[in-house]
Every structure is written in structure tokens, then in C-alpha cells.
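This part of the workshop introduces the protein records we will be handling. Getting from the letters to the C-alpha cells is the skill we practise here. The record below serves as our worked example for the rest of this section.

…
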Amino acid sequence: RVIEWSEDGLPLLMAGTHIDITEFKNLQQKLDDEIKLKDKFFSILAHDLKNPFNYILGMSELMKAEQGNLDEKSREHLEDLNHAATQAYHLVTDLLQWAKIQKGSSVRLELSAGDIAPEIEKVQTAVQSLAKHKQITIHAEKTNQICVFDKSALQTILRNLITNSLKFLEA
């Protein structure tokens, strides 16, 4: 602040403090570098996990198609394996999308008009084994509502809502 002014209205004497923010700027840069490293790690991790899950899903689908010789219990285990692999694959896909968003990449929504019931059924099927394990029945009313939505985003949102609900519900 100005303590004394000249006759011309210019400051002659000022009092104040200053703070050296060099350390703060260095810490900020280090934090930014660590965040970039974390984002790259998640992106690589998710990408590298996606391929094994594709294999597991493909093999479990093949086994389901050829399950004629299996007893009922083995068929149930195979179905649970397929659902768990599908669930894990979706988590990895969500992680990849999150990593893209963190890097500043925009996410493209593929909007289309249609009935959301088939998408709800897909998610319901995907989380069925978790619900069955907790002895919870999931029921969705058919609406025949035409909506504009992105299939992938809608499935991610529904899957997250339902799996989080199942985690915290008691049978």
C-alpha cells in the first residue's frame, strides 16, 4: 500500500510484503507431471487388460455354445464365468474411457433414437450373476419409450447404478 504520495500524485513510499512462490510453482509442476504419469499408467493398464478379457469372453462364449455335454451345475458356473468376464471387460473399457477424459480427449457420444428396454436387458443380464449370488431379483418394467441416448454411456451408467446398489443391498 502507498504510504506517501508526491505532489504530482505519484507514489513515493510504499509498504508491503512479498512471497516467493517458486516452491509452490515447483510443487505444482511436480503434481502435474505425476497426474500425467498416473493417467498414462491407467491408459496402458486398461489397454493391456482389454486383450486378455477379449480372449476370456470369446472362449467362454464358445464354451457356452458347446455346453450340451455339461451338467446343470457346470452350466451355471460357465454362465457365472461369462458374466464376471463381461463385467470385468466393461470395467476395463470404462477405465480406458476415463483415462481418455483425464488426458483432455473429448468423448464422442453416438446418439441414436430408440427404445432403451434392450439396453436395460443387456445390463440386467450382465449383472444377473452378482444379483443371484446375493439372492436378489432384478426386475425392469418395459416402457416402450423412445429416447435419444448413447448405448455405451447408458449401459455404463445403468451398470454402475445397479452394481453399486447390489453391493450395498442386503438380501
Remarks:
- The longest helix spans residues 22-65.
- The chain has a mean pLDDT of 83.
